[in-house]
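Notes to self, Putative regulatory protein, FmdB family:
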Amino acid sequence: MPIYEFICTSCGHQFETLRSAKDPSAILCTKCQSDAVKKILSSGSFKVGAGGSASLPSAPPVASCGRSGFS
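result:
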């Protein structure tokens, strides 16, 4: 089951919940119990092959002060 991230539009609380994509029940804010929640896009990781995991690639390093990084 995937973990989804939500934000409550009533109180602004951000939270995660583990749930089936086929679960029809309403999602309630874990802080104020409001059902006014929106799913938000989260950065995450994913499984690769036989049990290994990998994260999304990071940005390349920034050049040091005063140098463009190109020669």
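- The beta strands are 3-8, 14-18, 37-40, 45-48, 52-55.
- The first strand starts at residue 3 and ends at 8.
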